[in-house]
Amino acid sequence: MTEPVAASDFIRDIVRRDNEQGVYGGRVQTRFPPEPNGYLHIGHAKAIVVDFGIADDFGGVCNLRLDDTNPDTEETEYVDSIVADIEWLGYTPKSVLHASDYFEQLYAWAEYLVEQGKAYVDDSDIETISAQRGGFGKPGVESEYRGRSVEENLDLLRRMRAGEFPDGSRVLRAKIDMQHENMQLRDPVMYRIRHADHHRTGDTWDIYPTYDWAHGQSDAIEGVTHSICTLEFDTHRALYDWYLEQLPLPSDQPKQIEFARLEFTHTVTSKRRLKTLVDTGVVDGWDDPRMPTLRALRRRGYPAAAIRTFCRDIGTTRTNSRQSIEALESYVRRELNATAQRRMAVLKPLKLVLTNWPEGQVEHFEVANNPENPADGVREVAFSGELWIEADDFAEVPPPKFFRLSPGREVRLRGAYLVTATDVVKDASGAIVQVNASYDPASRGGNAPDGRKVKSTMHWVSAAHAVPGTVALYDRLFSAAVPGERTGEPLDDLNPASRELLTECRLEAALADTEPGAVVQFERLGYFAHDAGQPLLFHRTVGLRDEWAAIQKRQASGGR
Among the options 3, 16, 27, 35, which is catalytic? Predict the structure, then answer.
């Protein structure tokens, strides 16, 4: 897809300079390389927008490459979901590739490094290897197996591949520098033994490459020019370059560039912790609308266009920061305000009876589908003498500054009539179950001929014409702005009241015809997405109030 060209940033400056200097012959090729061990989340959206956006800006191509080098955690389910989520976000890869496509070439290059004396088989266990690497300011210790001959290393590596040795008994390591200040260069592991079936290669392999060994070489095989990674791979760049510099590459050596990943308040994007939420039943699945996964946001009603625009507008930097979730919600609200049809829905219904309404009479009113877009036209809404209103819109004893319905007070029913509450009906417990009111027949359309004004306009649905529905209201999944900041464990900050399910809602009849997945505005209440799998279940996408604008206003006024 073609997007507006993003403002210049340091990555685009690098690519532009490379093109001006003739590096890669002016060719630009990027890739989005997720590991298929979970569902894509909102943090991945930033990487997708950067990878595809840069390729598009410079007339290049971007591939999707599944970095599937760990058979223990990867599944075809995740592969399929990644492909679908990228398409939903609005991008089409030039090709869909897999690191496992290159297992034979990676292994051949591993033997090449062994033959060059730059890799060796180590019999040490992982705990010993970790301890011998030392630490910052602490020298590394060379393995006792580091001096093995080329012949012995080749023999052992080939037997590792043949499946002769048990899991964890040996690894292949690069021979670089155990005293290097960059810990990534202290003889990193290239292959480990795993007697596990791979979701694509089955039982063909008994050894699997590490991410660092597969990453740069996969880039080189594909012809990637600019390998864009998140900032945590900054220290890996020297190893990325070292591997590539040792090998007879089929094309120019790719260039790794790192940028800050996207994090939000009240959210975690660790796949491990997200999987824990799913596995322990804290959420209903990867698409639970409280989750930060792309398919959960889609189910909740977040427009892909809003996510793309947000990711472009915040820019690409090398400084980690945490974005306010309200900032993203403001983009969602802005997009939906322009595109969402308006409907009326009562979430916590209270019966309103118009005592002077002619018995059996039904009228219809024309109401705009979207005042922001006249081309969306109008719809007819039925009105009768028995209505549903929000329970919160009535107070028998109104508090100060309560301008909605109360005994003796007149209000406007949206697009219909002015009504005045007269009395209430209560059940045996004293709870109000019905409000009686009179309507002014001369105020049809919501305005009185004598010009009198009212201070409140309320939404409603006709009781005889309403359809029952269920509405899910969502709060933050994590109560703390920075989950885990207090205890070190983000899951300690889970919000036990992150979802409220309302099962007695009464909805305007037109909502029964809402397309699955479509988002509508419930007037006065917010934006709601019709569930794709359960008819008349609506998820609140975002409220009408722009929390981010309020925050900015407070900040501009010095925090008052």
Answer: 35
